[in-house]
Design goal:
486 residues, 16% strand, alpha/beta, 32% helix, five-stranded parallel beta sheet
Length: 486
């Protein structure tokens, strides 16, 4: 235990964000560089090293949180990094992007503010990179077996790194022009600068992983032919089919899926474009969807110079404290103010979009909505609450419905789907096609980055065992495991 009285003497303190007026003028990460270093050891001392550390249950990776908290408290950053990497291939990703179910499950959170687990995690890994402690780990010998990984998001990258280190020859296929999946083009630069992805890719290249960009399996290469070329295949293509909003006016110009809007902004930051073809500059922007992707659209619109930003959510406004039906250690639905929300805009709850209205040229100009409420367990409209709001750019951030079925990958492999439309798999993450495995959102459905990495690591064990007959790789989650919720 770091400090037996740490949780009594030290209050919770989180990373400082840069002033709003400053950060909306650039695309750098919102946090003040180095702001955690003066306080993070004391924050780590708040960890109680519980007899049963429920933070382990909250995190599907099974991160050894009390151990690296103790090392951080004692300023043994190299040891902290080793314990961190023991369960997580990419802690700089999760430390910036994960909503931290581990903190929701922290025992201290029963009656106090939980330990700042994410902040400790990101400090450990940032210091490890700065000290040169993150180095390539190539295998001692090669197995002679080959593996293709389809998709380079967190699940695909985790599976690829684990299998490469196990001695297999791994090639990652990505249909975009750069590696990273939604980490690259779905996450704005102000949440995670892409240099963090780039240096992990270089580490993986040095370990032996091969990368093939701008190759879409199903269109550019027939899936069945790919299967014959490799000893095993891991499908980590994500759940990239956006959920639509089929209301009148949906086909008007200016109504876009979030994953049409956000990648263009990222391509500007990559230097591919001077100006995004879908920009919020000078426009009244409406974001439909109250989740993290919606918040990403809000922050992006602020930086593009929107005239106004309104975010709509069909559900009621959550409370700021746990409800009785969401007890510790479950992950509660709480009112959350992200950095994007701090920057301005309006959030409207309990409303449903009824139609879009355009001008004579087919450009969206107005969004019509109505207030809704739950009655007898059903969502019903409240009469007399209809109104319209200006909307010259609308982004749909209402989730995803499954993996892409249009490119032929599922049908060419002959894959079976489960009842929810995801690719079906057994306890070893194997599909109905011998030698073909699935990890991440393609098999689980839309989920969190920690679940993607955990599934990538677990699927790698299944592949390794299929190729060699046994495996010592870790498998932190089963396909049937679910988040600690109610």
């Amino acid at each position: 235990m770091a400090d037996p009285k740490g949780f009594l003497t030290t209050g919770r303190e989180v990373a400082q964000t840069r002033p709003v007026a400053e950060r909306v003028r650039d695309w750098n990460e919102v946090y003040v560089p180095g702001s955690l270093l003066p306080v993070i050891s004391k924050q780590a001392s708040r960890c109680m090293d519980c007899g049963i550390p429920f933070c382990h249950n909250g995190c599907p990776l099974g991160n050894l949180i009390p151990e690296w908290n103790d090392y951080a408290y004692r300023d043994d950053w190299r040891a902290a990094s080793e314990r961190l990497h023991a369960t997580n291939n990419f802690p700089e990703f999760t430390g910036r992007l994960c909503p931290a179910p581990c903190e929701a499950a922290c025992v201290l959170g029963i009656n106090q503010q939980p330990v700042t687990i994410k902040n400790v995690e990101v400090t450990i890994i940032d210091k490890a990179w700065a000290a040169g402690d993150v180095t390539p780990q190539p295998p001692e010998r090669l197995s002679g077996k080959t593996v293709a990984v389809i998709g380079s998001g967190p699940a695909g990258l985790a599976a690829a790194q684990q299998l490469t280190r196990a001695g297999h020859t791994v090639a990652v296929y990505e249909r975009a022009d750069r590696i990273g999946g939604l980490l690259r083009y779905g996450i704005p630069e102000f949440k995670m600068e892409k240099r963090h992805i780039n240096r992990r890719i270089e580490q993986m290249r040095a370990e032996g992983t091969k990368f093939r960009t701008e190759v879409e399996i199903g269109r550019d290469i027939d899936a069945a032919k790919l299967r014959k070329r490799y000893d095993a295949v891991v499908i980590a293509a994500g759940a990239t089919t956006s959920r639509d909003l089929p209301v009148p006016g949906r086909d008007l110009k200016g109504v876009h899926f979030a994953m049409e809007y956000l990648p263009m902004a990222n391509k500007v930051q990559e230097g591919d474009l001077t100006v995004s073809p879908i920009t919020a500059e000078g426009k009244h922007v409406v974001v439909i969807g109250g989740g993290d992707t919606g918040a990403d659209c809000v922050g992006t619109a602020h930086r593009q110079g929107a005239a106004s930003v309104t975010q709509l959510e069909i559900m009621p406004k959550p409370g700021e404290e746990r409800n009785a039906n969401q007890p510790w250690p479950t992950f509660p639905m709480l009112y959350k103010v992200t950095s994007a929300h701090e920057e301005g805009g309006e959030r409207v709850y309990s409303v449903s979009t009824t139609r879009f209205e355009g001008d004579e040229d087919g450009n969206v100009q107005w969004l019509h909505l109505v207030e809704v409420e739950f009655t007898d367990g059903k969502l019903v409209q409240k009469p007399g609450t209809e109104r319209r709001i200006p909307a010259q750019l609308v982004t749909l951030a209402v989730g995803f419905t499954g993996t892409d079925r249009q490119n032929g990958l599922v049908d060419q492999f002959g894959l079976e789907l489960d009842a929810r439309g995801n690719i079906a798999r057994d306890a070893d993450y194997a599909t109905n096609v011998p030698g073909v495995f699935v990890a991440g959102d393609a098999g689980r459905g839309q989920s969190l980055i920690v679940w993607a990495i955990a599934e990538g690591r677990s699927a790698a064990r299944g592949v390794d065992r299929y190729l060699t007959g046994t495996s010592t790789l870790p498998a932190p989650v089963r396909p049937t495991d679910r988040a600690l919720t109610v």
